[in-house]
Specification:
Layout lengths: L1 H31 L11 H67 L12 H19 L5 H37 L3 H6 L1 H42 L1
Length: about 240
């Protein structure tokens, strides 16, 4: 697509310069022949000089115009390449996010948290926060050049916003697991804190249901983003 556009630009420059040379020759020969006052055969040397001058002028015009067209095309090509890299990087990050979220949820439900030390987030949360920040940076780097890119950027922005909400729910779920573990150290603790434990578990399940709904939205939007990204690359 881009190569075809460059060829079209070069053709237009060629037509412009060729037309200019032809116009210069016609006007020059017309003046030299003194037509319509009287007619005589053109001097071959004069005709040769006119032709040489026309080619020199054409080359003088062609060189800077061609250089500008090629430079501008290189700049556009470079920009498109950067856009493609950003799109590919976003798709890669979102794939990693989907995988890491699954690992994070699995650890919250299955891993025994050490309640004898201060609360520390699982490594998956820190990884997801890093992915989120990278996503925000890449989102800013994408220029809105056409409707497909606008839709792509809009979907990534919505994914970013939903991811923040999902991470908030997961963080509190993780902390609730830690709190419950600290309260249930023995049967006595379980009995004393029965009401508080119930509230923690209710909040945990409520947040899990909300997270599950958001995660479904994230997965659906992820596939939309991948589809749009592939379509952008086909059409640019």
């Amino acid at each position: 697509m881009a190569r075809k556009k460059l060829e079209d630009k070069i053709k237009r420059v060629g037509y412009f310069v060729g037309g200019g040379i032809l116009g210069y020759l016609l006007i020059s020969f017309f003046i030299l022949s003194s037509f319509p006052l009287h007619q005589y055969l053109l001097d071959k040397k004069l005709a040769y000089d006119v032709l040489k001058d026309s080619l020199t002028i054409g080359a003088a015009f062609l060189a800077p115009i061609a250089a500008f067209v090629l430079f501008n095309d290189w700049r556009v090509e470079y920009h498109i390449k950067e856009q493609f890299n950003s799109i590919d990087e976003i798709k890669k990050i979102l794939k990693e996010v989907e995988t890491t979220i699954g690992k994070y949820v699995n650890r919250i439900f299955k891993e025994n948290i050490n309640c004898n030390i201060e609360f520390e987030n699982f490594s998956e949360r820190l990884i997801l926060l890093e992915y989120r920040d990278l996503l925000g940076i890449l989102l800013v780097e994408i220029d809105e050049k056409n409707q497909l890119v606008i839709d792509f950027k809009k979907n990534v922005g919505m994914y970013y916003a939903k991811l923040n909400v999902a991470l908030n729910h997961l963080n509190i779920m993780e902390f609730n697991t830690y709190r419950e573990g600290k309260l249930i150290k023995d049967d006595i603790g379980r009995k004393i804190h029965e009401e508080e434990i119930k509230n923690i578990r209710d909040d945990f399940m409520d947040r899990y249901l909300k997270f599950h709904e958001i995660h479904n939205e994230l997965t659906s939007r992820y596939f939309s983003i991948v589809t749009l990204g592939n379509e952008i690359k086909r059409n640019m």
